Amino acid sequence: MASRASHTRLDPEVRRELILDAAERVMAGRLPAEVTFEEVADAAEVSRALVYNYFRDRTGLLVALAERTLDRLDREVLGALDPGADLAAQVEALGQAYMRHGRTNASTWTLLSRSGLLDHPTVQGARAARVAHIARMWGDTPDARLAAWSVTALYEVSGFNALPDDVAEADLPRFLRDLLAPGLTARGVGPVATSGA
């Protein structure tokens, strides 16, 4: 175990983020059950007791990793939606954001999948909030809610799983745009004009 005699006093939120960074590094490519808090503590250069203090148990640590990753996903996905763009452009932008996020956070999503946390209430709640946000942007009708749910589900499945070898990542958002946007538009789903300030 590394010596932890001299420490700089860090803000608790900064320390928490450093522990989460260490947990992501230690858990990369491993099953969550194989990783001990001792390993996470060593990688974060903190005591095991401090890791327990922040996260209580492995599930608490994994939920915290999920929350952080979901915050990133929401910022990237919802930030990609230009309220002034048409539905086709928004469907494509969603896909590009999901694919980019899936690529840059692949190890964390693999970890969450292996841990069984994709069905955790935290993950389900974040997904529901993201879908509701998109549905509001598209008119918040029953069809808009179904469209937002469907598009989100398609992109989550494809963004967090390997595409066929002969398919380029950039092809998927265009394919789904061309496949979905005309039918959704025909059903009255589309961006809602926002009032200016």
Automatic annotation (TrEMBL):
Top-rank lineage group of the source organism: Bacteria
Sequence ranges assigned to domain HTH tetR-type in this UniProt record: 13-73
Protein keywords: DNA-binding
DNA-binding region of this protein: 36-55
One GO MF term attached to the UniProt entry: transcription cis-regulatory region binding
Protein name: Helix-turn-helix domain containing protein
Organism: Iamia majanohamensis
